[in-house]
């Protein structure tokens, strides 16, 4: 067999998770162990059906398995998972339902691809570097700073069970569920953690247990840096003090409580009891108004970058105007796009093409004489 087949086999083996045997992979791919072994060692070809099965079972793209290169049109994504106290693992129970929303977002980015430039900013590698890049007070307009400084598209979408970071046609995207602002702040920091630490370098939903812990640690250090937290005399702090800290950091009471526990800070009983309150109730102690406590952080439904590119592709006749109509929420008649050619124009184009072809053939014949 060719070297190409051996390389495909090596890529398949490289994606087998720890604990998966060739026997279990063969069963999942509906192959005999002998056939799989020969295929993995380059002594047998692979059918399209088997390739599709391997991609599905291993969470890889068929394009990557065949070529060794990322599929530019594949969507790679990671989610903010929920901690399951029964299994002591991070889970994403809404993944299958959320995939419909994510696939629609990917469809729009693919349609706009011709007029989209890839995200080119090199992301800061540490939480400290990220804070410096985003600038003082970044949490007050977090999404806007992320877009402006990092060239990461940030959008908000209803119907999701959690928050996601995506890579699609070269663009980095964070999709936030419509939630209370304190969760939005933490989720955006968490998804930046996935992007910064390279968790989206493989196809599919690839964030594992270790990835989730790293993303959470990044978010904690970005929003509640250890140096800042240790600056305070925790035994002497009051409920009002910690309420003001929560408001300044734009995090939830629960996030502050977990950070205190993680850093083993000696907070007073008064502070610990205050952090058991809901975030809005705690913030009444910081003398914030109801409007501030229940504010809606502005995050657009779609990034202006992809909308501008989609409109440009639609006007060129490269994107479906019906898709653009649904994205903008306007009648398709309000969309500017080229009219399809009439039957007469199609006939005229065909005749012109055939005439040009005959002229080229005649010219080639004369040259040969």
From TrEMBL:
PANTHER family to which the protein is assigned, alphabetical: ANTITOXIN HIGA1 (PTHR43236), BLL7220 PROTEIN (PTHR43236:SF1)
Domain HTH cro/C1-type intervals: 19-65
Family stated for the protein in its record: Belongs to the short-chain fatty acyl-CoA assimilation regulator (ScfR) family.
UniProt name for this protein: HTH cro/C1-type domain-containing protein
InterPro entries: Cro/C1-type_HTH, IrrE_HExxH, Lambda_DNA-bd_dom_sf, Rad_response_metalloprotease
SUPFAM superfamilies: lambda repressor-like DNA-binding domains (SSF47413)
PROSITE patterns, per database record: HTH_CROC1 (PS50943)
SMART domains documented for this protein: HTH_XRE
Gene Ontology terms, MF aspect: DNA binding
């Amino acid at each position: 067999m060719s070297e190409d087949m051996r390389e495909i086999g090596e890529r398949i083996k490289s994606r087998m998770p720890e604990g998966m045997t060739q026997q279990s992979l063969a069963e999942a791919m509906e192959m005999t162990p002998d056939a799989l072994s020969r295929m993995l060692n380059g002594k047998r070809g692979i059918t399209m059906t088997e390739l599709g099965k391997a991609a599905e079972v291993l969470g890889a793209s068929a394009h990557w398995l065949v070529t060794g290169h990322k599929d530019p049109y594949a969507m790679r994504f990671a989610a903010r998972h929920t901690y399951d106290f029964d299994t002591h693992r991070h889970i994403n129970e809404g993944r299958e339902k959320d995939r419909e929303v994510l696939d629609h977002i990917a469809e729009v980015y693919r349609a706009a691809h011709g007029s989209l430039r890839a995200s080119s900013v090199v992301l800061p590698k540490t939480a400290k570097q990220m804070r410096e890049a985003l600038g003082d007070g970044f949490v007050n307009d977090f999404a806007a700073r992320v877009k402006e400084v990092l060239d990461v598209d940030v959008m908000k979408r209803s119907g999701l069970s959690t928050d996601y970071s995506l890579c699609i046609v070269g663009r980095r995207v964070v999709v936030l569920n419509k939630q209370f602002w304190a969760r939005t702040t933490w989720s955006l920091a968490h998804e930046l953690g996935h992007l910064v630490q390279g968790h989206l370098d493989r196809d599919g939903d690839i964030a594992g247990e270790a990835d989730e812990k790293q993303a959470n640690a990044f978010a904690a250090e970005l929003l509640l840096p250890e140096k800042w937290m240790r600056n305070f005399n925790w035994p002497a702090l009051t409920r009002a003090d910690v309420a003001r800290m929560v408001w300044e950091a734009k995090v939830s009471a629960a996030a502050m409580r977990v950070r205190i526990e993680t850093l083993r800070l000696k907070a007073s009983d008064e502070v610990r009891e205050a952090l058991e309150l809901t975030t809005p109730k705690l913030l009444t102690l910081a003398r914030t108004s109801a409007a501030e406590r229940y504010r809606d952080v502005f995050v657009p439904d779609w990034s202006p970058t992809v909308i501008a590119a989609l409109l440009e592709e639609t006007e060129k006749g490269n994107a479906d105007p019906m898709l653009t109509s649904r994205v903008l929420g306007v009648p398709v008649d309000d969309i500017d796009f080229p009219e399809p050619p009439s039957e007469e124009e199609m006939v005229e184009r065909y005749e012109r093409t055939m005439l040009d072809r005959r002229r080229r053939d005649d010219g080639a014949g004369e040259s040969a004489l």
